[in-house]
Amino acid sequence: MSLMTEARLGTGAAPGTTLPAAPAPTYEGDFVLSEHLLLDSGRTLAGVTLHYAVSGSLLNLENDCVLCVNLIGSCYGSTGPGSVDPDTGEIYGPDFPLISIADNVRAQAQLLDSLGIHKLRLILGGSIGGMQALDWAIHFPDRLDRAVIIGVAPVSAMGLALNHLQRQAIQQDPDWADGRYLGQRPPHRGLALARQIAMLSYKSADLFDERFGRTPNRNGEDPWSLDNHGGGLIGGRFDIAGYLDHQGVRFINRFDANAYLAILRMMDTWDPLRGHASPAEAFAPIRARLTFVGISSDWLFPSPSVRAFASIIQSAGIHADYREMTTSHGHDAFLAEQSELVHLLL
């Protein structure tokens, strides 16, 4: 693979977000950090692995490559709660440390060093990926030209509440076992419920009304019948309930509960202003051009919050503009309507 001095870095979406099909990468592999990674929490991780993929032809690019890196803390190849702690020989499980967005960014910088990539033309990220894009601009100001930050601001009280309920759903599953659940008996019911709560925050009320309304479940259940599911107190499901249950079942075999909790904590604790006396101090290092994108129907990261966050950064003297997607797709719009997003960014 030819290495380039400039590249595009793409970062991930919220945990469990359904991604559209993408072309197969030109190369996919692992990078192992040579030294312990010092975390913002004060702990260290040894033998950290980053799983990444490179594509040189995505979107018919002729002069750039696209690099996508899996989060530390996840369950898709990078070091996470399901990995073995080299210091103990045991799986981390619930002992996996708190990982910050900045921890991920610092590890990604080492990956780029190993690939001979010295500068990034663009970092593009939605949701938790947008958090990484901004942290790249703060912590490595000389290594990128532009960052596009989509559908993100520090998590609001409503977002924190939803994430708390998702954690509670997992931890109250009888199979949770304080996070030391057996591989053959994970807390599937709690994880499925957490996924369903998350799905509410990824969509919008208008989209749900349009797609599901008050229609009975498409498998033939009758919400007004006393015969479905054992009586009148439960009854048959409406179509939206069937949809949510289906999403939960689809999710449990492709995600790990401890990894889910790790990523929720990563989102909750991200706040670039924390520890700084003012926005000017927090964002002073930024040299890249920033573009913030709000989503009109997003209630996980409401567009007024994204606009206000961009304004705070603008007030610090940083080149940051704001654009908005008008859509009923909610937080997932940057995935569901990618052509509209591309048009907005041109």
Task: Jot down its keywords.
346 residues, alpha/beta, Rossmann fold, Rna Polymerase Sigma Factor, Chain: A, 8-stranded mixed sheet, globular, disordered N terminus
SSE diagram, text form:
Elements: E1 6-11, E2 27-32, E3 37-38, E4 44-45, E5 49-55, E6 66-69, H1 101-115, E7 119-126, H2 128-139, E8 144-150, H3 157-171, H4 188-202, H5 205-211, H6 239-252, H7 257-268, H8 279-283, E9 289-295, H9 303-315, E10 320-325, H10 333-336, H11 338-345
Parallel strand pairs: 1-6, 1-7, 7-8, 8-9, 9-10
Antiparallel strand pairs: 2-5, 3-4, 5-6
Helix pairs in contact: 1-2, 3-4, 3-7, 4-6
What does this molecule look like?
With 346 residues, the chain is α/β, with parallel strands linked by helices. The chain folds into 2 domains: 6-157 and 287-345, Rossmann fold (3-Layer(aba) Sandwich), CATH 3.40.50.1820; 159-260, Orthogonal Bundle (Rna Polymerase Sigma Factor, Chain: A). It contains 11 helices and 10 strands. Strands 2-5-6-1-7-8-9-10 form an 8-stranded mixed beta sheet, sandwiched between helices. Strand 9, helix 9 and strand 10 form a beta-alpha-beta unit. The radius of gyration is 21 Å and the shape is globular. It starts with 5 loop residues before the first strand and ends with a helix. 42% of the residues are buried. Residues 1-8 have low confidence and may be disordered.
